[in-house]
Amino acid sequence: MSVTQSTIEETVHIALREDVGDGDVTAVLIPADAVSLANVICREACVFCGMDWFEEVFRQIDDQVFIEWHVEDGDSIEAGETICSLSGASRSLLTGERTALNFAQTLSATATLASRYAKAVAGTNTVILDTRKTIPGLRAAQKYAVTCGGCQNHRMGLFDAILIKENHILAAGSIPTAIEDARFHNPGYPVEIEVESISQLEQSIAAGVDRILLDNFSTDQIREAVKLSNGRIPLEASGGITLENIREYAETGVDYISTGSLTKDIIAIDLSMRFSM
Fold first, then answer.
1. Any idea what the Cα angle at residue 256 is, between residues 251 and 257, rounded to 5°?
2. Which of 44, 180, 215, 265 is catalytic?
3. 18-48-120-136 Cα dihedral, nearest 10 degrees
4. Is 230 helix (H, G, I), strand (E, B) or coil?
5. Contact assessment for residue 190 and residue 164, using Cβ atoms and an 8 Å cutoff
6. How far is it, in rounded angstroms, from Cα 37 to Cα 186?
7. Which of these is catalytic: 165, 183, 211, 223?
8. CA angle 74, 244, 117 (to 5 degrees)
9. Residue 143: pLDDT over 80
10. Which residue among 17, 57, 236, 277 is least enclosed by CB atoms within 10 Å?
11. Residue 237: CB partners within 8 Å, gap ≥ 6?
């Protein structure tokens, strides 16, 4: 997945407006002509992510800040490694420090957790997907980070694919009607439906949906669903699946497993910026 430059610029602009506001009132303690060198150090092992957002922070503050990268997005790094070196006006480095690190810490956390999930199902044919349970304003950034960690993206939002859930089915009156209405109103869009029982699964297969989400199915139920589908329609499992049990679910033969944990159950990676002069 790639993120457009305009999206990155907008996201960073909002973050800087939130932090800097009308101006950094502490940075004025530093002489205006002072120049510094700084290094960003990683304090724990992780999968790094966030270069473009980090760079954009300083571009918007001061495009004369120079950044030399020692890693790339998707790299696995160890504690104590230097991620990048910066040089430029001391005021600019200090003003951008927190916002730049916030992006890198959050996106690296997402990529790192995604990597753990991807490794947990290595050797199976199951693909791990993210969900829409992202930090507000960071949808594109986190979904990019998920791919850096080795997992894949579900739909970006409500606008690019159809996912029929329980309340949609109730409103439409039945599974076949919900699927038919979805295709009528949005021809050409992929249609997925969430089912809660084998009976609903059978109805969905008969209706010819593009993908079926098995909501809170046990591993035995998923095996039954895989056998019933027999490869005709891709199956996705979700609900109650954790890093500890995901391997068991993947070994059922299900095509996809989606989990909101990739983007919401993250702990920021410990990064710090240290001036060398």
1. 80
2. 215
3. 10
4. coil
5. no
6. 54
7. 165
8. 15
9. yes
10. 277
11. 213, 214, 217, 222, 249, 252, 254, 256, 257, 258
Q: What is the pLDDT of residues 233-243, one digit of tens each?
A: 999 999 999 99
In a 13 Å sphere around the CA of 148, the CA atoms on its Cβ side amount to 29
- 264 as an active site residue: the answer is no
Query: Which of 52, 55, 192, 194 is flagged as catalytic?
Result: 194
Query: Which pTM value belongs to this model?
Result: 0.95
7 CB burial (10 A radius; 0-12, 13-18, 19+): middle
DSSP-assigned letters across all residues of 170-213: HHHSSHHHHHHHHHHHSTTS-EEEEESSHHHHHHHHHHT-SEEE
Mark whether 143 is an active-site residue. no
- Return d(Cα 270, Cα 45) in angstroms, integer: 9
For residue 138 the two structure tokens come to: 């960071």
pLDDT tens, residue by residue, 32-89: 999 999 999 999 999 999 999 999 999 999 999 999 999 999 999 999 999 999 999 9
Backbone angles phi, psi at 187, to 5 degrees: -60, 140
Token output for 78:
């160890």
The number of angstroms, rounded, from the C-alpha of 100 to the middle of its chain's C-alpha atoms is 18
Confidence of residue 276 (pLDDT cuts 50, 70, 90): confident
Token reading at 185? 């109103």
DSSP 71-103: S-TT-EE-TT-EEEEEEEEHHHHHHHHHHHHHH
Amino acid 183: pLDDT: 95
Active-site option among 98, 227, 232, 274: 98
Catalytic residue among 132, 133, 247, 264: 133
* Structure token digits, residue 201: 């699964």
